[in-house]
Amino acid sequence: xxxxxxxxxxxxxxxxxxxxxxxxxxxxxxxxxxxxxxxxxxxxxxxxxxxxxxxxxxxxxxxxxxxxxxxxxxxxxxxxxxxxxxxxxxxxxxxxxxxxxxxxxxxxxxxxxxxxxxxxxxxxxxxxxxxxxxxxxxxxxxxxxxxxxxxxxxxxxxxxxxxxxxxxxxxxxxxxxxxxxxxxxxxxxxxxxxxxxxxxxxxxxxxxxxxxxxxxxxxxxxxxxxxxxxxxxxxxxxxxxxxxxxxxxxxxxxxxxxxxxxxxxxxxxxxxxxxxxxxxxxxxxxxxxxxxxxxxxxxxxxxxxxxxxxxxxxxxxxxxxxxxxxxxxxxxxxxxxxxxxxxxxxxxxxxxxxxxxxxxxxxxxxxxxxxxxxxxxxx
Length: 379
Fold this sequence. Notes:
It is a single chain. Residues 359-379 have low confidence and may be disordered. The protein has strands at 9-10, 16-17, 39-40, 46-47, 69-70, 76-77, 106-109, 112-116, 122-124, 133-140, 146-154, 159-168, 172-177, 182-187, 192-197, 209-210, 218-223, 229-233, 238-242, 249-254, 261-264, 270-275, 278-283, 290-294, 299-304, 310-314, 319-323, 329-338, 341-342, 349-354, 356-365, 368-377. The protein is built from no helices and 32 strands. By secondary structure, the protein is mainly β. β22 and β23 (278-283) form a beta hairpin. It is rod-shaped, with a radius of gyration of 42 Å.
C-alpha cells in the first residue's frame, strides 16, 4: 500500500488488503476457491461459482430438491411421470387425461358398439331377444310338390303345431329373409326361386327369379345376417351365395353337401347337416370345414331357434329335435301336430327368422269403426 512499516499485504486473490487499505483479505468459498461465488443452497449442496451445479429448486410440494411434479390433472405427484399415479386422477376410460371416454359414452370392442361402464369396461349392449320368432316347414306332399306350413312351437306342451300356408307343385327348399319378410322357395332341381309373403292374409307366390349358377340338387337354403341368400348344391358339393333381389351369383364355398340343410347361427356362422356322412359341420370356407358331431340318419331340415339352439327335422319322424351349436342333443323334442293329429315328416325342410309384430289400433268415429295396422319390427 506504500506505507513504510505498514501491515497491508497481498491476499490469495493478489489484492492489497489490510493495513491502511480499508480492504479485507478474500476468503475461500465452499468450493475452496478464494474470492469464488459458490455457496451452500437449501439442499446443503455447494453450487454455483466454479462447481458446475445449479442451486436446487422448490418442487410443487414446497420441498427443495423434491421430485414432485404437477401432472395434466393439476395434481402434485411424487416421482413425476415415473409414478403410476401420474395423470391418474383425470384419466378417462381410455387412459387419456381429461379425455371424453367417460362412463355412459359410446365405445367399441371387437367391432361391436357398446357403452363405457362405471368400471371403465366397454360393455357391448346385448341385442334384445326377438319377441316374434317364426319357423316354417316345407314338406313333400303325395303329388310330388311341397306343402308350406308355419310351425308354432309350444314350450309348455312341447308341441309343434302346423298352420298350412300354401302348396306348390315342385319340391323346394326354403329360407326366411328377415330383411324383406319373405319366405324364399328354392327349386330343388333348377337354379330358380320364388318368394312367398307369409304376412299376407292370402299368401301368394312371386314370379320366378333365375340365379347365376345353373345347378341342381339344391337341398338347403338360408340367409346370412347381411341379407345374402345361400343355397347348398348336392350335385356340385358347394354352397352358393346370391343377391336375393336379382339372383346374381356372388361366390361359393366347398362343402360335403349330401341332402340335409343349412342355417346361420346368431354370430353369422354357417352350419350344415348332411345325410352322408351323418354329420353336422360348421362351414368355414377356405380354412376348411369343422366337423361338430353326429346327426340322426335322414336329417333333412335345420333352423335356428329363438334361444339360439337349432331345430332339426328328420325324414319319417313325427317330432322335431333340438340341438345346440356344437351338435349336441339337448333331449328336447317337439311333437308335430296338424289339425290336432300327429304329423309325419317327408323331406321336411326348415327355415326361421325374426318377424314383425302386428299391432292393431281401433278407433271409433261416431258409428264408423276405423282400423289401423302398424308393423313393429321385434328387435
